[in-house]
Design a protein that fits this description.
With 251 residues, the protein is α+β, with helices and mostly antiparallel strands. The protein is 44% helix and 13% strand. The protein has a six-stranded mixed β-sheet with strand order 2-1-6-5-3-4, sandwiched between helices.
Length: 251
């Protein structure tokens, strides 16, 4: 299925789907609401963990930037592992395709049977060792793309529901990525240095590497990142980076 077809299906979910409380979904979602909606999808497929990632803007240093996960407002160990791993292959695939990727640990056969029945999905090496999971590439306006990932030993995903679940992931990502660019002006003024630190973080650099590149002390680099997170109302630097990407503050 082409990107456009998934976007059409996603738009249908945004327009027609109601949440369990009977409230209409918003076109743009805050992180708490998006986390709740992602949890609904996870519950529907019996996943025990989930995460939503943006693809970093740097073509030289491919990386997945965490936006939210099942440990919100914190960041789970699996999410940190995925963000810190060498992600060139999965990022390259995400930028060019919408085909889901799945993985299964040989010692955890539960989900593997469900995944093997998914003709359109492809098997990859585990994104997190010792886990089973499936990753849905998702795309939004302004060229933004990312992954919605679900993990768990007993995921249930009938082949007939694959496209529906993927469309819901598209809708979720579009709603998270759809923060109006004009909202950037509502954020407290972010300095050039703070934006530079955020962009380098998005490209996978550590505080030590940022300090070296910008000729700062590590303390000062961390201070810039803390300040930018506060100004963006983010709970940590990863969420600050994800929000800055959504607002178009960094590319």
């Amino acid at each position: 299925m082409k990107n456009a077809a998934f976007k059409d299906a996603a738009q249908g979910h945004l327009n027609d789907q109601q949440d369990p409380s009977g409230q209409e979904p918003n076109r743009a979602l805050g992180i708490p609401d998006a986390t709740r909606r992602c949890r609904w999808i996870a519950d529907d497929i019996k996943a025990s963990a989930f995460g939503l990632f943006f693809v970093s803007p740097s073509p030289e240093r491919a990386r997945l930037v965490p936006c939210l996960d099942s440990d919100f407002p914190g960041t789970g160990v699996a999410t940190r592992f995925i963000a810190g791993a060498n992600g060139e292959d999965i990022v390259r695939h995400t930028r060019t395709s919408t085909a889901p990727h799945w993985w299964a640990d040989d010692g955890m056969p539960g989900s593997q049977g469900a995944f093997l029945a998914l003709e359109w999905a492809e098997r990859i090496a585990p994104l997190v060792p010792g886990t089973n999971g499936i990753a849905f590439p998702v795309h939004a306006d302004r060229g933004q793309c990312g992954l919605v990932i679900f993990m768990g030993p007993d995921i249930v995903l009938p082949a007939g529901l694959l496209y529906d679940i993927h469309a819901r992931c598209f809708a979720l990502f579009s709603a998270v990525a759809g923060t109006h660019p004009g909202d950037a002006g509502k954020a407290r003024s972010i300095s050039k240095r703070e934006l530079e630190c955020l962009k380098l973080t998005a490209n996978g650099n550590t505080s030590e590497e940022i300090a070296k590149l910008l000729k700062l002390s590590v303390h000062t680099a961390n201070q810039y990142l803390t300040q930018s997170a506060q100004k963006l109302n983010a709970v940590n630097r990863n969420q600050a980076v994800a929000k800055a990407l959504r607002l178009g503050l960094i590319e």
